[in-house]
Amino acid sequence: MTRKIIHVDMDAFFASVEQRDAPDLRGKPVAVGGSGGRGVVAAASYEARRFGVRSAMPSVTALRRCPDLVFVRPRFNVYRAVSRQIRDIFEEYTPLVEPLSLDEAYLDVTANQRGLPSATATAEEIRARILADTGLTASAGVSYNKLLAKLASDVNKPNGQCVITPAAGPGFVAALAIGRFHGVGPRTAEKMHALGIHTGADLARWSLADLVARFGKAGAWYHAIARAEDDRAVTPDRPRKSYSSETTFAADLLNPEEIEAGVMRMAADVADWVRRTGATGRTVTLKARFADFATVTRSRTLGLPIGADAVAPLAVELVRTLYPPRAGIRLLGVTLSAFERKAEDAENQMAFEL
């Protein structure tokens, strides 16, 4: 039986939430993130995107492109709460929901729970429900596999949807630029360009054997997607493997007091998540990036589960192994992993990362 897959992608999610909650921001170019010298754009409104502002862009670059850009500090607790609302809507239509991030998910609606006649109608109703319940718009892609559904959700953004039927799938990917394919990153795209592969049609001319010879195990995936083939199932509630918190500081941390205060802040965020979810892990990892951009990690694994109160002491112990620091520290991160069991609340169910 042909699957019916929907990929729902919220439109400029973080920035849209901020514009919804602060009417004076509506219609203005908005960036969620830090505006300082080392700040990074976490999300940009569509008004900001017209100036070339994009997520993961340094804030100073974003301000050069858009001098009127308004920066808003992120409110992850709000974004998570809205995501939970959206997840509740999804689950009214199907139990097969695979979240990818706070703002996007796959839904398998081959057998939708509301008895709607088609996946197209289901996607339309879900988007209308999201707008009514949250005041936010979403775009959707509808197709017979995950590859095409995700590609389709980008076609009519914002606040639109696109359907790719089984008959249209091969032609759609044939015309697609190779860098648009899931699993083809910038370096792989550059390598493919050097081989004369610029579109899906170019990729389809290569045999499976030749692609495996050139790209290793990934060659089989490239062979399949060039033919619009993707047999991956929608997998709900994937077990979470880790939880981390990190930040880049406005100024390099030089003395132990500053460094350990920074570690404590990151550890407190991880500990708070542990308390909320009830998850316990066995490994704490400390990440530090120095002013020269060299990055090191230190880990400690215990025989017993690590509770919330133990995260900070272990993280501080690990950062002390870096003293004296080779240079000022620009970034610190703390991660808890090797979970005893998956978290039981919405944070784990959504498996959402930024």
Automatic annotation (TrEMBL):
Keywords: Cytoplasm, DNA damage, DNA repair, DNA replication, DNA-binding, DNA-directed DNA polymerase, Magnesium, Metal-binding, Mutator protein, Nucleotidyltransferase, Transferase. Its EC number is 2.7.7.7. The keyword Cell cycle does not apply. Binds 2 magnesium ions per subunit. It is found in: Cytoplasm. The record marks F14 as: Substrate discrimination. One of its GO terms (cellular component) is cytosol. Pfam families: IMS (PF00817), IMS_C (PF11799), IMS_HHH (PF11798). Its cofactor is Mg(2+). It catalyses: DNA(n) + a 2'-deoxyribonucleoside 5'-triphosphate = DNA(n+1) + diphosphate. CDD domains: PolY_Pol_IV_kappa (cd03586). GO terms for biological process: DNA repair; DNA-templated DNA replication; error-prone translesion synthesis; SOS response. InterPro entries: DNA/RNA_pol_sf, DNA_pol_Y-fam_lit_finger_sf, DNA_pol_Y-fam_little_finger, DNA_polymerase-Y, DNApol_IV, PolY_HhH_motif, Rev_trsase/Diguanyl_cyclase, UmuC. The keyword Glycoprotein does not apply. Mg(2+) binds at D9, D103. The active site is at E104. Residues 5-185 form the UmuC domain. GO terms for molecular function: damaged DNA binding; DNA-directed DNA polymerase activity; magnesium ion binding. Monomer. Poorly processive, error-prone DNA polymerase involved in untargeted mutagenesis. Copies undamaged DNA at stalled replication forks, which arise in vivo from mismatched or misaligned primer ends. These misaligned primers can be extended by PolIV. Exhibits no 3'-5' exonuclease (proofreading) activity. May be involved in translesional synthesis, in conjunction with the beta clamp from PolIII. PANTHER family: DNA POLYMERASE KAPPA, DNA REPAIR POLYMERASE UMUC / TRANSFERASE FAMILY MEMBER. HAMAP family: DNApol_IV. Belongs to the DNA polymerase type-Y family. This is DNA polymerase IV. The lineage of its organism: Bacteria, Pseudomonadati, Pseudomonadota, Alphaproteobacteria, Sphingomonadales. The gene is dinB.
